[in-house]
Design a protein that fits this description.
Length: 427
């Protein structure tokens, strides 16, 4: 037995032995397979990266068929129960959970970066009141690049960590300023006495009271949701982050790019799309007819299905439990009954069962956000804030990777061969 793969090319009769490492073969090893010396060599073809590992990572472990998600080895369920979002950020960045002292120092370090440059306000005021919060978020994060030229020194690990702390500290401030601007409300400065999510809720909702104190259940629920959304290995937006930073672009513009990838309804935009669907269905008796339309291929059931999970998304289970706790405080969101009925029917229906379509993290999260008073258009921003931590952890890992290279996929060109512009073209 050897850790190799034998390949016989039936076009030429030649045999090749390719090394196997960690259950993978190197795509570049296929290049030696040629029909003649002029042949470029074989490539693997994988639209949508269905079966291509683009990097080696030590951050997030995901077993889709078993419904397992772990950050640095810790099951997501245990982190959601026992840690805080900032401790999880520390874990993602440094590989270990912080002890009590490290946790306090870390929280203080992040809080030192919650303020935005005053000129950011002028930028924000330039947007229309009805500007979509994701467009505002993406533009403002990108604009931070102009305030921190030192961020371009991406080869220095200390500089990388400084920018990562800045981004984790500032994204809630950007999100809340975008919201306040859309409502014509004054901006609220960060309050470093509060927790990460407590401060975010303060910046969102404080009115004339001298100090805003979020309900502890809601503050914790948001923290748990942030933990669940912090990282999810090489998804569309994380791959975008790795792609953009592979050219050594600074992390502010790269996080803006990753956020743009997240914005789409097939990815982080699904939480907003789910709520739109639930509102469209409206009440329980309309659920079967709606499912029928999904099965007829009219549209997809948003918040269902996942490229990697072919089992119940473990995050969806925690979100569902969190929803119950939140509704005890805010009152029940009536659309939860519609959501639960959709889930019940879908989980019994052959169409969904055979395609292994289960609720994903976005299915219930919007209901919680709505109950907490967030406008529907801001839901994807609530995904982008915690995922910023995952993007940054993956960026820092990639920059320190000895196999680091600019990302540059190949293509399967099937267009026309050489032809010539006619001599009389446009004469
Ligand atoms: N409703 C109905 N049918 C679906 C759905 C759905 N939500 N998702 C997949 N399918 C069907 C799809 O039509 C296809 O059927 P067939 O084999 O007959 O052509 C089959 O299931 C496989 O779908 P796919 O598009 O090849 O699967 P994918 O891995 O490329 O796509 C997905 C994954 C998440 C884009 C997709 O399931 C989807 O569009 N879901 C709805 C949007 C959503 O909830 N997105 C959030 C994902 S979780 C959080 C995140 O990543 O941000």
């Amino acid at each position: 037995m050897s850790d190799t793969l034998s390949i016989r090319d039936n076009r030429t009769g030649k045999e090749y032995e390719i090394d196997i490492k960690d259950d993978n073969i190197k795509a570049l090893d296929l290049r030696q397979i040629k029909v003649n010396d002029d042949d470029f060599g074989m490539m693997s073809y994988d639209p949508g990266y269905m079966n291509t590992a683009s990097c080696t990572s030590h951050i997030t472990d995901l077993h889709g068929s078993k419904g397992i998600l772990r950050y640095r080895g810790y099951p997501i369920e245990q982190l959601a129960e026992k840690s805080t979002f900032l401790d999880v950020v520390y874990l993602l960045f440094n590989g270990e959970l912080p002890d009590t002292q490290q946790s306090e120092d870390w929280a203080m370090r992040i809080k030192h970066h919650t303020m935005l440059h005053e000129k950011t306000k002028r930028l924000l005021k330039g947007f229309n009141y009805d500007a979509h919060p994701m467009g505002v978020f993406i533009s403002t994060v990108a604009a931070l690049s102009t305030f921190y030229p030192d961020a371009k020194d991406v080869d220095d690990p200390e500089t990388r960590m400084l920018q990562a702390c800045r981004l984790v500290g500032k994204t809630p401030t950007i999100a809340s300023y975008a919201y306040r601007n859309s409502r014509g409300l004054p901006f609220i400065y960060p309050d470093n006495e509060l927790s990460y999510t407590g401060n975010f809720l303060n910046m969102m909702y404080r009115m004339v009271e001298p100090r805003y104190q979020a309900h502890p259940v809601l503050e914790r629920a948001l923290d748990v949701l942030f933990i669940l959304h912090a990282d999810h290995e090489q998804n569309c937006s994380t791959s975008a982050m790795r792609n953009i930073t592979s050219s050594k672009a600074d992390p502010f513009v790269a996080v803006a790019g990753a956020s743009a990838a997240l914005y789409g309804p097939s990815h982080g935009g699904a939480n907003e799309a789910v709520l739109n669907q639930l509102r469209e269905i409206g009440s329980l008796e309309n659920v079967p007819a709606y499912i029928k339309r999904v099965k007829a291929g009219e549209f997809r059931l948003m918040g269902f299905g996942h490229r990697v999970y072919k089992n119940y998304d473990p995050r969806a289970r925690i979100v569902k439990e969190t929803a119950e706790a939140v509704f005890e405080v805010t009152g029940r969101n009536p659309l939860i009954d519609v959501a639960m009925e959709l889930e019940r029917i879908a989980l019994e229906d052959e169409f969904f069962v055979s395609k292994k379509l289960y609720p994903n993290v976005d299915f219930y999260s919007g209901l919680i956000y709505e109950a907490m008073g967030f406008p529907m258009e801001a839901f994807t921003v609530l995904f982008a804030i915690p995922r910023t931590a995952g993007w940054l952890a993956q960026w820092m890992e990639s920059m320190a990777d000895p196999e680091f290279r600019i990302t540059r996929p190949r293509q399967n060109y099937q267009g026309l061969g050489e032809r010539h512009v006619p001599d009389d073209y446009r004469s």
